């Protein structure tokens, strides 16, 4: 398969500035200079998604600050909250086109983690659940969200379209159950990397 890589040289991602890249296993890895003076090699998709914004110094700063405030920066709930905000508010997030670009945002109250945490605790949150929007075209806010099991969320996704392969047509969830591949793996291969349905459903994960 031919791979085309976006030229990120000179672009800034948080505290990182891309300098040069090399290709490994069909994937571009960028050497970046951090504002603190350190360097770090980061996969291109991690830069564009907003998952990596420093050599590690920023996370340490936030962790120290966050622990002084609420002590939950290492929790799964904080991770869910950060991802929710990023896909709605950060144009560099790989999922932004399905959220922020569609006009989906986070209510002002939930831009404060403590408010989001209080609502979650009062509405049955546990680490085995995932955040669901009742109206998939609506915003992230108390009136439109609930915590549900992961498999139930898959049925309510806008991207749970059907895929035809090997003489039959099924939803991504049905293919996931049949092949044993994760829902997100199949979806990403087809939606973001342009793989054929047959390739996406048969190639084992790395």
If you had to describe this structure to a student in words, what would you say it looks like?
With 206 residues, the chain is α+β, with helices and mostly antiparallel strands. It has three domains: 1-69, no CATH class; 72-154, no CATH class; 162-202, no CATH class. Helices cover 34% and strands 20% of the residues. The chain contains eight helices and eight strands; from the N terminus they run E-E-E-E-H-H-H-H-E-E-H-E-E-H-H-H. The strands form three sheets. A four-stranded antiparallel beta sheet has the order 1-2-3-4. Strands 5-6 form a two-stranded antiparallel ribbon. Strand 3 (27-34) and strand 4 (39-43) form a beta hairpin. The longest helix is centred in the middle third of the chain and has 14 residues, at 76-89. It is flat. The mean pLDDT is 82.
Descriptive tags:
two-stranded antiparallel ribbon; four-stranded antiparallel β-sheet; 206 residues; 3 domains; 8 strands; alpha+beta; 8 helices
Question: What is the structure about, briefly put?
Answer:
This protein is an alpha+beta fold and 206 residues long. Helix content is 34%, strand content 20%. The strands form three sheets. Strands 1-2-3-4 form a four-stranded antiparallel β-sheet. It has a two-stranded antiparallel sheet with strand order 5-6. Strands 7-8 form a two-stranded antiparallel sheet.
């Amino acid at each position: 398969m031919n791979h085309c890589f976006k030229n990120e040289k000179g672009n800034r991602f948080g505290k990182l500035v891309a300098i040069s890249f090399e290709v490994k296993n069909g994937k571009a890895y960028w050497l970046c200079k951090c504002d603190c003076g350190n360097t770090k090699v980061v996969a291109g998709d991690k830069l564009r998604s907003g998952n990596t914004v420093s050599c590690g110094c920023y996370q340490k700063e936030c962790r120290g600050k966050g622990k002084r405030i609420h002590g939950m920066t290492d929790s799964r709930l904080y991770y869910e909250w950060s991802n929710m905000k990023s896909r709605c508010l950060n144009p560099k997030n790989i999922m932004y086109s399905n959220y922020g670009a569609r006009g989906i945002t986070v209510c002002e109250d939930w831009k404060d983690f403590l408010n989001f945490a209080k609502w979650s605790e009062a509405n049955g949150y546990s680490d085995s659940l995932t955040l669901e929007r009742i109206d998939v075209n609506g915003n992230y806010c108390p009136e439109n969200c609930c915590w549900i099991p992961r498999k139930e969320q898959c049925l309510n996704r806008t991207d749970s379209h059907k895929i035809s392969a090997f003489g039959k047509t099924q939803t991504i969830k049905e293919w996931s159950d049949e092949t044993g591949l994760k829902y997100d793996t199949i979806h990403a291969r087809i939606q973001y990397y342009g793989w054929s349905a047959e390739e996406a459903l048969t190639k084992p994960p790395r």
